[in-house]
Amino acid sequence: DVKVTQSSRYLVKRTGEKVFLECVQDMDHENMFWYRQDPGLGLRLIYFSYDVKMKEKGDIPEGYSVSREKKERFSLILESASTNQTSMYLCASSLIGGGLSYEQYFGPGTRLTVT
Amino acid sequence: AQKITQTQPGMFVQEKEAVTLDCTYDTSDPSYGLFWYKQPSSGEMIFLIYQGSYDQQNATEGRYSLNFQKARKSANLVISASQLGDSAMYFCAMREGRGSSNTGKLIFGQGTTLQVKP
Fold first, then answer.
1. In the predicted model, what is the mean pLDDT of chain B?
2. Is pLDDT at A26 greater than 90 in this prediction?
3. Which residues of chain B lie closer than 8 angstroms to A31, CB-CB?
4. Tens digit of pLDDT for each residue in B30-88?
5. Which of A30, A85, A100, B10 has its CA 20 to 30 A from that of A18?
6. B104, A102: Cβ pair inside 8 Å?
């Protein structure tokens, strides 16, 4: 059974803290994604990676960075957390060259609260 | 620019009735794919159904069908015989063929919350 896991379901951090969100997939997928989900805005792409050590900015990369040192692991980093980064964060993965029809597989999400 | 619009923030349906969730899209790429995902209160996104822009028939998966009207750029999800377990948020998403088929990028709509009443 395919699996994407995220390190925490719930996380509470203080303003200014450095925050790491970890995502691991066991499907040998090349592509990995980080989204944030906010009410009324749907899912917005923060960063994605199509290979180890490769990354590209999504639609809302400001205030975030990512790291992909191993194929199965994609980390989202909030260098200095702010209250406007309180959100649900979803990680996903998919095949490269999978064609139009290949879906993304999602993790359970991390609900981050920054106080 | 590519865009997905879901105009219904919330909907109610009686158990065992059918319901249609609206989705319109905008793209200049003739090759694209449309997806619907379900997100229960647990948070995990579940893939439901896919429709390709060149597919002649509307996609169906069990109780889910996609009403694809290409000229109107709409891809509505129809859930037949609603069940209590269908209560969730539903997202429409699109992937364009230009470049995105390799990156796998999806653009998502705002989502529709469906509540099924007993």
1. 93
2. yes
3. 103-104
4. 889 999 999 999 899 999 999 999 999 999 999 999 999 999 999 999 999 999 999 99
5. A30
6. yes
Q: What is the CA radius of gyration of chain B?
A: 14
A34-73 residues touching B, CB cutoff 8 A: 35, 40-45, 48, 50, 56
**Residue A99: its pLDDT value, please?**
74
| SS3 (DSSP) at B17 | coil
d(CA A14, CA B108): 30
> Which of B53, B49, B58 has the alpha carbon at shortest distance from B28?
B53
Round to whole Å and give the CA distance between A53 and B29.
30
* CA–centroid distance for B89 within its chain: 11
CB proximity B104 to A under 8 Å: yes
How much is the pLDDT for A92? Answer: 96
- Sign of the Cα torsion B61, B35, A7, A2 reads positive
**Secondary structure element (H or E) that encloses residue B100, with its range:** helix B100-103
